[in-house]
């Protein structure tokens, strides 16, 4: 306390102010009360509407929703985990800023903490935090609404900071910071980013272990490892409900192994290979790390008035009105890479790439090799199906890797590692007693490699690039040859411009370092100039993908969907539970229908595996028997002038019905194929593993038997039924064994799966009441563990604070 002064605090206070100013300036529409319109958040509002309404009306968590894909757990949609008492620290870390300013500030603050732990000068750490935070992908996902992903990325750096602090024998605070930040990381509920964090940590651990063995500090390494294990256990226990529920649910989703035996060459123990690698970065596309529009930028971008496309249109006497209309809307022509579509490239910055290469030449020790290794690993794995030898190995042998799709996302590792090594290079460059020969050689080589690459593509990109994309054949069928040539010319022009742009920033950064090297500029000025150059480089690129045009009124964000006349007509139906199949949208990539109705389709990346297979094998073939058993009461179809209209399906079987027969099958293959030709009103198809639960049922039904849904909640269904004898009932509800319980007159009664995805059970004769309740033990037990762990973590933090205070008071007494 004695040595604390305003001068020492100034850089840290300045960091907060600088980060705040940049955040506010970049996201200035927030000051006008506007909000960012994010497509994934619109989808979230659709998929979570039933959950949110139930929570608001009852104060309870439904844990299940019937608004999508016939029904599914809400764990990966919207669930409030009240046992975790650490989560409010997220608001502390982000100063309570409104969304998405909180995300951008977290990008800054998290990386700043890591750089401070690694001994970087605070002023230089500000520059490094800007370099990290403005990586283009981080802004692209904000625009898309991938909020949980963005927050999870923001917490990567502080988690690493806690681990490094622990390895540097700061066991108490290193362990506590690791536990707190890892708890926040997991709480963001984006397992894929957390998995990539684990990859970074494992590679760091390997190189640290090698260093410990080589330099004989193995015992402190083991001590630190023990502390980190305890920290990890605390972080996991604090989030045990969501982790446990996700793990349990994951075994039944598309991220688990299929029971079907067809298409084996494409299957893994998780997602199918083509699904995992659907978004794969092209090998040449990796150059976007240095040159942003190397592959044309976004696949939905506006064409500028000075573009080669406009020139081609003018040369072919296209009217100005047509040109203006053409250039006023986003077009799919400029991106020519191999991804199905993209919102923009992964650009880490020309200066950052230059500094990264500088770090390879002047940084010493295991840190360099750790960061280089994870960078290369992430780039190679991002290639996906373009480098299948490595991808296939990871999908087959690396635990958990095949649970995640869109391999391009792994580039977040490079986006973390490259700026970190680059700033460590500057730290080395500014050391008081550096090896000047190594520094000069590093600047020459780094500037030479990155500068020559940029120069070559600024001058002769056509010597190396074809500018022909996989979609060009489709475009050529719709567009004249002269316009296709204009598109190719525009792609070439974009590469030239951005390559020249990158070259300028590389020369500015290298020149500034050389001025310092020759004592022409003081360190403070150099850091300030590099900060400005970094901001100028990254800020302007990010504005291509997230700018003021992405903001709209709060009303439009809060209520993203407007009911059509078809929706309004269906909403008049007071039947408590039926399903809608909307054919005016892509039904299985749509959440708008779920906002108003219980939908056959939906929008989610972790739907139930069996339901997805039902879509692929039956629903996509318009099998009406399957749609009837799902109680599809209404179809929304395009009417006159494409106005949605309603068709009533009189064949829908209702909420539940008694069948006359059942057909036992040996496996999932027989079960799904038996649905090609069957009458669900009369017959139930049942896997033989449930045969014992059919005991006592002789088949048949009485014409007077009936079963009726009397009350509906997403997690609780009430029925009344009358049966003359033991009867087999089928329910138009999705079977999920981890939580749904059936009670006949309050007595727990077994139920089982029928018709591949539905529930069925043998019911005793007579008049009875039946209930289905969703009562997953994972939530009830997990919340208790989570609460206890949160309290324990806070007790440890308080204890550590008291300990430090006691030490400080003891030290003052000695003085």
List keywords for this structure.
51% helix, four-stranded antiparallel β-sheet, five-stranded antiparallel β-sheet, 815 residues, alpha+beta
Compact overview of the structure:
By secondary structure, this protein is of the alpha+beta class. 51% of the residues lie in helices and 11% in strands. The strands form six sheets. It has a five-stranded antiparallel β-sheet, with no helix packed on it. It has a four-stranded antiparallel β-sheet with strand order 8-13-17-16, with no helix packed on it.
What does this protein look like?
This protein has 815 residues and is α+β, with helices and mostly antiparallel strands. Among the domains are: 284 residues, no CATH class; 94 residues. It is built from 31 helices and 18 strands. The strands form six sheets. The protein has a five-stranded antiparallel β-sheet, with no helix packed on it. The longest helix is centred in the last third of the chain and has 38 residues. It is globular, with a radius of gyration of 30 Å.
């Amino acid at each position: 306390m004695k040595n604390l002064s305003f001068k020492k605090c100034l850089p840290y206070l300045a960091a907060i102010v600088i980060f705040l100013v940049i955040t506010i300036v970049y996201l200035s529409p927030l000051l006008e009360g506007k909000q960012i319109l994010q497509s994934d958040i619109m989808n979230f509002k659709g998929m979570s509407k039933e959950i949110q309404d139930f929570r608001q009306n009852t104060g309870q968590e439904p844990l299940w929703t019937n608004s999508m894909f016939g029904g599914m757990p809400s764990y990966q949609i919207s669930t409030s985990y009240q046992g975790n008492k650490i989560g409010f620290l997220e608001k502390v870390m982000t100063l309570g800023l409104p969304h998405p300013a909180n995300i951008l500030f977290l990008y800054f603050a998290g990386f700043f903490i890591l750089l401070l732990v690694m001994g970087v000068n605070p002023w230089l750490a500000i520059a490094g935090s800007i370099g990290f935070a403005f990586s283009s992908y981080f802004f692209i996902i904000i625009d898309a609404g991938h909020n949980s992903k963005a927050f999870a990325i923001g917490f990567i750096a502080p988690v690493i900071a806690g681990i490094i602090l622990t390895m540097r024998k700061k066991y108490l605070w290193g362990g506590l910071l690791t536990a707190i930040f890892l708890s926040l990381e997991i709480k963001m509920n984006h397992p894929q980013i957390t998995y990539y964090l684990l990859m970074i940590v494992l590679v760091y651990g390997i190189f640290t272990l090698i260093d410990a063995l080589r330099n004989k500090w193995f015992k402190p390494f083991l001590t630190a490892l023990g502390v980190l294990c305890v920290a990890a256990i605390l972080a996991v226990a604090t989030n045990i409900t969501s982790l446990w529920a996700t793990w349990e649910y994951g075994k039944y989703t598309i991220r688990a192994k299929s029971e079907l035996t067809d298409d084996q060459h494409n299957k893994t123990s998780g997602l199918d290979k083509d699904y995992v690698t659907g978004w794969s970065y092209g090998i040449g596309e990796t150059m976007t790390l240095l040159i942003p529009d190397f592959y044309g930028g976004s696949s939905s971008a506006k064409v500028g008035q000075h573009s080669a496309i406009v020139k081609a249109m003018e040369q072919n006497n296209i009217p100005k009105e047509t040109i203006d209309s053409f250039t006023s809307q986003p077009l799919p022509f400029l991106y020519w890479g191999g991804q199905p579509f993209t919102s923009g490239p992964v650009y880490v910055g020309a200066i950052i790439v230059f500094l990264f290469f500088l770090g390879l030449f002047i940084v010493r020790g295991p840190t360099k090799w750790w960061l280089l290794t994870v960078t290369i690993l992430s780039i190679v794995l991002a290639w996906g199906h373009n480098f299948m030898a490595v991808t296939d190995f990871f999908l087959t042998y690396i635990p958990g890797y095949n649970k995640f799709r869109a391999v391009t996302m792994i580039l977040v590792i490079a986006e973390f590692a490259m700026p970190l090594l680059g700033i460590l290079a500057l730290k080395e460059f500014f050391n008081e007693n550096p090896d000047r020969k190594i520094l000069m050689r590093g600047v020459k080589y780094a500037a030479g490699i990155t500068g020559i690459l940029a120069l070559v593509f600024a001058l002769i990109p056509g010597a190396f690039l074809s500018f022909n994309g996989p979609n060009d054949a489709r475009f050529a069928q719709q567009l004249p040859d002269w316009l296709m040539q204009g598109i190719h010319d525009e792609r070439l022009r974009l590469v030239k411009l951005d390559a020249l742009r990158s070259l300028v920033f590389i020369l500015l950064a290298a020149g500034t370092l050389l001025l310092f090297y020759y004592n022409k500029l003081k360190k403070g000025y150099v850091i300030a100039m590099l900060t400005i150059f970094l901001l100028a480089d990254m800020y302007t690129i990010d504005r291509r993908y997230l700018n003021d045009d992405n903001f709209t009124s709060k009303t439009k964000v809060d209520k993203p969907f407007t009911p059509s006349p078809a929706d309004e007509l269906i909403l008049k139906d007071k039947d408590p539970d039926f399903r809608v199949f909307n054919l005016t949208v892509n039904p299985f990539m749509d959440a708008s229908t779920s906002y108003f109705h219980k939908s056959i389709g939906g929008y989610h990346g972790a739907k139930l595996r069996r339901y997805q297979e039902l879509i692929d094998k039956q629903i996509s073939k318009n099998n009406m028997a399957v749609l009837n058993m799902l109680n599809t009461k209404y179809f929304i179809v395009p009417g006159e002038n494409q106005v949605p209209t309603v068709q009533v399906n009189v064949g829908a079987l209702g909420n539940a019905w008694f069948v006359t027969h059942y057909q036992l099958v040996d496996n999932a293959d027989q079960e799904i194929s038996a649905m090609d030709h069957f009458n669900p009103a009369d017959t139930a198809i049942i896997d033989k593993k449930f045969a014992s639960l059919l005991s006592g049922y002789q088949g048949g039904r009485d014409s007077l038997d009936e079963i009726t849904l009397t009350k509906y909640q997403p997690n609780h269904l009430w029925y009344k039924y009358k049966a003359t004898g033991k009867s087999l009932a089928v329910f138009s509800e999705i079977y999920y064994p981890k939580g749904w319980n059936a009670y006949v007159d309050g007595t727990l009664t077994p139920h089982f799966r029928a018709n591949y995805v539905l529930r069925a059970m043998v019911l005793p004769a007579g008049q009875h009441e039946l209930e289905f309740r969703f009562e997953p033990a994972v939530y009830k037990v997990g919340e208790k563990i989570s609460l206890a762990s949160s309290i324990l973590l806070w007790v440890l933090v308080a204890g550590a604070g008291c300990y430090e205070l006691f030490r400080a008071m003891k030290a003052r007494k000695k003085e």
